[in-house]
Amino acid sequence: MRYRLLAVDLDDTFLNKELQVSPRVQQAVIEALKKGIIVTLATGRMYRSAKKYAFSFLGDIPLITYNGALIKYSRSEREVYHQPVPGELALTIYRRVKGHFHLNVYQDDELLVEEDNQYIRDYSKIAGVPFRVVSNIEELLGKKAPTKLLAIGDPEELDQLWEETNGEFRGVLHITKSKPHYLEFLAAGVNKGEALKILAQHLGISLTETVAVGDSYNDLEMLEAAGLGVAMGNALPEVKRRADLVVPANDEDGIAYLINEIILKN
């Protein structure tokens, strides 16, 4: 099978533990691009956070961001797809989470919080984006639907919230974990797998010609949608079980292995 599109998760997949793209991975991506393979990022991160990793050497490509809620070109900034969380549902989640967990709200590709604390400072540093403290998130949500909401807190307590809200909002919200301490709330039907389908159709590429690679729960739909679903060596056990292939870990340049030994040899 000749693969034409490679969709790569960012954190703990494309990036190493220093949050960098290693020279070996970058060189492998360049070789793939020379062969006419489109390489894009599929991440839970904001568009403004993801684009800086694409801008330097991937060219003008549509990026899958916010776990699939926004697909937008990295240079021209042309929007392909955007599905925000409906306003009333966003307000319900805000009221449910407030006082129990820290909450990030993403609106117009801006990171909004009601409190400056260690959670948002750590998140802002990792994502490489600024945040803005606003006095009344609820008022803003009433005016405009957000792209995503993200609760941050204790992993076990978030697991409990995940179980409760999955039952309560089944069919009207998509709720997933990108990291043990991150619980993400998206519009129904929004996930990386659906975004991959939309992107492949937009590019005129068959899903059988796509490869997707990731490490966490929010990558599962994408791995299942792709022609070849790949888990990193550092991926969660469930992700490895449901993948077609497991490659070395992110700190072992697993993406370079995937490109050089699997994609380019096909």
UniProtKB/TrEMBL annotation:
It comes from Carboxydothermus hydrogenoformans (strain ATCC BAA-161 / DSM 6008 / Z-2901). This is HAD-superfamily hydrolase, subfamily IIB. It comes from the Bacteria. InterPro entries: Cof, HAD-like_sf, HAD-SF_hydro_IIB, HAD_sf. The keyword Hydrolase applies. GO terms for cellular component: cytosol. It holds the Pfam family Hydrolase_3. Keywords: Hydrolase. One of its GO terms (molecular function) is phosphatase activity.
